[in-house]
Amino acid sequence: MTQADLVAEIKTLIIDSLNLEEITPADIDTDAHLFGDGLGLDSIDALELGVALQKRYGLSFAADSEETRQHFASVAALAAYVGTHRTQ
Amino acid sequence: MSATSAASLSFNLHAWSAWASDLTTPEAWQHWAHTGERQAQQQEPAVAAMPAMLRRRAQKLGRMALETLYAQPAPADFPLVVASRYGEILRSTALLQELAETGAVSPQSFSMSVHNAIGGLYTIATQQQTPVSALAAGTQTTLGGLIEAAMQLADGAPGVRLLLCDEPLPDLYERYGETATPAFAYLLTLTPGAQLRLHHQPGNGQDAAPLDLLRFLLTDAPTLSLGQTGWCISRALAL
């Protein structure tokens, strides 16, 4: 799987797991902030996304660490982390 | 109960709104109230007035309830009372099944599984700071909601918005033999007044289903039994 494929897959995972109505993968800027400004997701979404990534890629995240925050900064950051740490 | 205290549980029906998959307009509800006829069409509640980022949190019953909330003006000083026997029971059941099967639940769905979630979501979206109460009282949920609303009026609220909503139990609960009523939501805006009166009348009363109350309000029946305990709602007699 190329990194571009993984980015596309993660965007779809975000839309599906967070019930983002009216948003398509093309609407999500790969480098934009996922939380706060950017896409406008909140802390509940962060938990939901963590569970979805865990299920899909066999990842685990430390609950409230600076490192985790960085992995969740953008789709690009998530894809980089998933690409190197996935176990499935 | 003395005449004085009975009089304090009176109110007017200022406005109403209602939503079910087959009854989406006031005219359709009026027709149902007078004929009992349901329609074959099935629509989805759009809740176009709510930002999509918040609307996505609500499932079907919640969206129906939100549809009725957005259909009426919301005076800032009118508290909201939500009376629902089961709330979004399809969500709760799915969560419990997910927990049993995987040992984990969806955080997003879990956060919306509390009984006051819909009222909370609505006040967040509309930035209202009005108090929200959510109650469930089994087969006496209709009565419970009315008593709560009437008490808040008696306590000085200038008006109360009473939301009643429920959806059929999932098949899993079929063995308990509950009567399945199609999902519905309706909102009554009650204001101080004497058009309608809650009173206690010892006898063989029966618990009113929420739609029994709506039907009573939309027709001209003089009295409706609200509960086995003897509570009734009556229209003021024309003098």
From TrEMBL, chain A:
Pfam hit, one: PP-binding
Keywords, comma-separated and alphabetical: Phosphopantetheine, Phosphoprotein
Entry annotated with the keyword Phosphoprotein: yes
Phosphoprotein is among the record's keywords: yes
Domain called Carrier: residue spans: 4-86
SUPFAM superfamilies to which the protein is assigned, alphabetical: ACP-like
Superkingdom of the source species: Bacteria
NCBIfam families: PRK09184.1 (NF006617)
Name by which UniProt lists this protein: Acyl carrier protein
Organism: Amantichitinum ursilacus
Name of encoding gene: acpP_1
TrEMBL record, chain B:
UniProt source species: Amantichitinum ursilacus
Keywords: Signal
Cleavable signal peptide: 1-20
Domain Beta-ketoacyl synthase-like N-terminal: 29-204
Protein name: Beta-ketoacyl synthase-like N-terminal domain-containing protein
